[in-house]
Amino acid sequence: MAQNLIICQFCEISKEIKWKCFSCDLVLCAYCAGKHSKFGGSEEHCIIHLKQVGTPENLDIIQKLNLKNIRCTIHEEEKCSLFCKKCKEPICSFCVLEPEHKGHNLEKLVTVYNNQLSDLKDIKKRIEKNSPGLSKIVSECTYTIDNYNEVKQKILQRQRYIKERATAEAAKLLVELDNFFKPNKEALMEDYKKILEKQSMTKKTNKLIDEALQSHQATYVLKTIGKVDKHLQLKVNADAIPQDQKFMFSIPDSLSINFGSVEVCPNNLRIINTYEICLPGVHGIKKLMSLKKGTLVFFYEKGEEEFMEYCDIHSGRLVFKYKTCIESFIGKEKRKVHDMTVTEDDVILVTSNCGSNSNKILYMNAYDNQFNKFQIYSNFPKFYNLNNGIHSFDQTILIGFHKYNCAFSKDKPAKGVMVLDKKGNCSKTLWITENDSDSLKIGSIDSLTKNINMNIVICDQHSLFVFDSKLKCKWTNKTLTSPNDIVTTPTGLIAVCDINAIHVFSMDGKLLTRIGRTDGIHYPTCLHINKSGQLLVGCEGPTKLEDSKIHVIEIF
């Protein structure tokens, strides 16, 4: 164990050093610290506990004490009491008589010190106030340049992949990309350089001020004020930084001479809030919905059990109100809940993968803690399974169905969508027919929803499908990696999440933008559009040790 080799400089016995007298420049034990202030002439000495030396209040006391004891560099026996503004240095009363300071503007040292100390603190406040905005602009500028470089690398990688066939097309696309970027490139890089220089200058200035404010030497303050710019300009002009756009490189489904395309697309997805789901043992959520009053409802697995949780957003965090274990209602098998929807009347509808419940829709009034069978009134044929996606809108329910594996036959289609009212009456049954060759590739109707143009949007474990109101396939997208949920926005955009990102498509199938891991979205599992039109994304934690999250994304 290291030993304390310093002893009290007053009694020269005790090693329990706790205090320091800055007037005498002595370290003291507790006993001597009490006695020291009682000696004649020592009553007003500055004695401070060593653990409190670095506090702002004590630093101020120490600096002012040091100010009183500044020795003249010319008349070493004298203390400085004046400040020569022309020479910018402390002087003593004898220096006034010296020819070096004849006719110079002099002022009390303590007055100059207080004014300069106040100026340094004001500059520091301005720096700290403006630093976040400056850092944000630097980040946005860096993102634009990185995004440009990222897309350029994707183009070059694609060029190498198809080698000679793609060389000419790659050169063409690089020209297009540069044409998008280069009109602003010179101004952007110039602004970026100025911003970095400004940031570097503010950091250096802040460091100098910190050193002066934390120093025990008052001369640090007096010397520092001349080294900093009291009128430091912190606002920057970032007009050349295109903050409202990013570049995107699109790749066709199959290899061909059609190399791809470069587009300037709006960066119109932004995370505005993130809420951690601090539930022990919960690593992911699924099927995120909301009730009429905004309460969020979602499912999660914990061990061998599955729970439905209710929570509100309050004061920037999730407030959990109520939960129920659904094992007793559905069964003990894993993956009990397949899909969920909530009606306008706060009725929760669930499809299940479990045993006898796999051919049923279960319902529960919010907070009732009791699932019941949702009765369907239809001439629906036997041997069809309802453990598919379900969606509710305008007092209408869409439910996907498919045949049991043992019941496939040539005379009946294998999959389709049933349209029900809120009482379970079937108004129509839509079949995916053999004439729709693309749609026959649907493995299962894992999730489905309705768009504002009455299109029906479906995803299975591999692809996204869009059908018209009669279930005729309009377009598909097969570039997703294990899609697991879909929603449509009030303006008709289609958002689908896979294990990597959230992808946003137009109604005619054009990929508009995406947001993923580089933006802070890790392993998205479910999507929901709230009453404000914001996109809510349920995500697993980046690692098994981190909490699940709900991100709120603004679509603009």
TrEMBL record:
Domain B box-type: 67-109
Assigned keywords, A-Z: Metal-binding, Zinc, Zinc-finger
Pfam families for the chain: zf-B_box (PF00643)
SMART domains xref list: BBOX (SM00336)
Entry's Gene Ontology molecular function annotations: zinc ion binding
Protein name per the record: B box-type domain-containing protein
